[in-house]
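SUBJECT: A protein chain and its fold
Encoding: whole-number codes for local backbone shapes
RECORD BEGINS BELOW THIS LINE
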Amino acid sequence: MGGNNTILKIMNLSKHFGALKAVDEVSFEVKKGEIIGLIGPNGAGKTTLTNLATGAYSKTDGKVIFKDLDISNLKPYQIARMGLTRTFQVVKPLIGMTVEENVLVGSLYGRDKRNTDMKNASKRAKEIIKLVGLESKKDFLVSDITLPDLKKMEFARVLAMEPEVVFLDEVMAGLNPTEVTEASILVKKIRLEKDLTIVYIEHIMKAVMGISDRIVVLHHGRKIVEGTPQEVVNDPAVVEAYLGKRYAKGIKEANNEG
């Protein structure tokens, strides 16, 4: 998907915690409109890389270029207002508030501060809530909704900020297979409707393979492979580091049957 226009460049990005190289000279580019899957075993550096790209961590080395601007040393709120946002692996709702109020906060503090008018921000929040399928829950307190709905709410809050690029950090974690399928359909639908570019961090391989245009694989903080889902699943280094031989065999058999 997307043309040749690169919207995000991760350039030799590194983050060291003492002797631990959590992210070690990682480079890749994201084109406008793409869904990039970011995968790897626990401790591979996926969330650390997300924290670096969105300003939560300061880098040890390297650069993050967003829309041709070096954003490596900006604060998270500055980066978010430029149009680069993220969800969190552990959902972080604003407790004591309703679903709609949570999404409204995203609308008010979004890109270019364009929604500081409460009427417009409220209209946006309602539109986004409808888009993610939470209309019937909009007046519920966030403490009273299920995990799948909490994840939709967090996605809605990020979307209300009018981002151009979103890092989705394990939005499928804790969901059952039916919910994973529904969430995958929602992500693809929103990518098209909102002209979004998505970096998709996920452990559930079926979900990653089903919606990613390209996949970047991290292992021990380093990028070991980058390619189409098919190229990645057939790569011996990926099979050994992450997928396991049984998974790769199942994919191969499924392809042969197809």
Summary: The longest strand covers residues 6-17. The CA atoms of residues 98 and 140 lie 5 Å apart. The longest helix spans residues 177-193. The mean pLDDT is 89.
